[in-house]
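Prompt: For my understanding, could you write out one protein's sequence and backbone structure tokens?
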Amino acid sequence: MKQDARKDLLRLSPQSVLSCLLEASGKQTKDQISEANRYREIGFEGENARLGWVTPPTWLNIERILNEFMCLQVAKHKKHYIFSGMGGSINAVKALIQILGDQSRFKLYTIDSLDPTALEELFSSIGDLSKALVIGVSKSGTTKETQDLLKALREGFYSQNLDYRNHFLWLTDLPQGKQNMEDVGWQGVETLSIQTDGGTDIGGRFSAPHTLVFLIPLLLLLDQDLHRLKAIWSAYLSLREKLILESAKKAYELAKKETQHFAIVLEEKLVQALETRIIQLFQESLGSKIAGFNPKTIVAAPGTMPEGFEEVMLETDTATIIVDAMLSMFLLQVFVAIFAYYKGINFVTQPEVERYKRKMTEILFQKTSPAERVTINQLLEDVRKLLQHKPQAKFLEVICYWHLKERLRHHLKRVLKTAFPDKQIFVFVGSDWNHHSYQAASWNEDTLFIILTKRYYEQQIKGISAQTLRKNTATLKTIAYATYKTLNGKAEFFEVEENGLRSP
């Protein structure tokens, strides 16, 4: 969109743009929305509506489908619930586990890494799988990483003489997602629609708190107590109505300032839980879509905002942390939608993501060039040399394609910050990063991206064939290499010994 047109949009009040968003919500075709409303273009992925998240589902719908879930034979008498999906399909579950995970008689787990170590850790935590239910989440039913992970999990159930059809459930868009899954060997497995109304107009990063991706794990963490969930839902709805306009006003304020670097300020107990989800919401929705706009997003506690970032702080402080989390999720989605309207950005698509996926398909069965193997000191020296040729780089982003533990992630970040004190340092896990930041990285010129794979990945796990583990590891490395190749000079690619990163 041309600069003059953007200035014209800024003449619209946040109340007017919010009204446009509400008008477009729930509409399934563009011709149902007035031509003056830009959401008829920027709220659709092609001809597919993607604004179903704006209007909360009714409690009657929620109660009906959650009762349906609890009555499923496959869900009965289970103690362990394993959620598997990628990006927006799993981030809300991770957040809920961090917030409420120690308060329920049920144990919830997530797996979204193709590193066999993640699978080994999961099986070690559960042991006996007879009381476990795997819930796969894929809007299309075709997400490769999710399919590969669930097939590996299926082998684990086979190894304990368990019929996987009694232990697997898919959340997907019906009917197409179910058909896609049956086409690749999931006949006879229970399925539920991701949306409570059976619709298909909510994308992954907007799937909380209004879909089953959020509501099923919340129900389990509340010990399947629908009365408690109803009270939480009512409190959320009441506060949501009071705060939604404030979110729109903040988006208008920062759009006028031409803000590109966002610091989402949350109370400390929510920072880690919501970090990945929020980064995906901002980076994938707004990045690499209009010239000269390259967003960076951090999630921080009050008083820790770095220089050069604009604060986004929404007043959601309630007596209930889960209500705070729900409000934060929804209000930030509204913020992004309003900000995108003023900037003329289609915020529900992720076109650049298809680049690395196409490259991945192209090279999946080809022999690729090995990454340079480095120690931590060699890595620091190589990064120093790379930065000399990229003087405009303000940010250093390191992406680790393995099951990276939080302690090592923070250690690596400290080592890099010591070596490069003038750079803003980010360290991410590859299975997260490709789904939250690749879109924004594609056009970014002020960041050096360092892609790391491990020299050694686990190749022996009881109950899983060596062939499956090799395949998953190969896919993980292929994603890393495809990411490197498609970032067009913005990235470098290295192989490391994970233990060697613990020094200096």
Summary: The mean pLDDT is 94. The longest helix spans residues 226-256. The chain is about 45% helix and 15% strand.
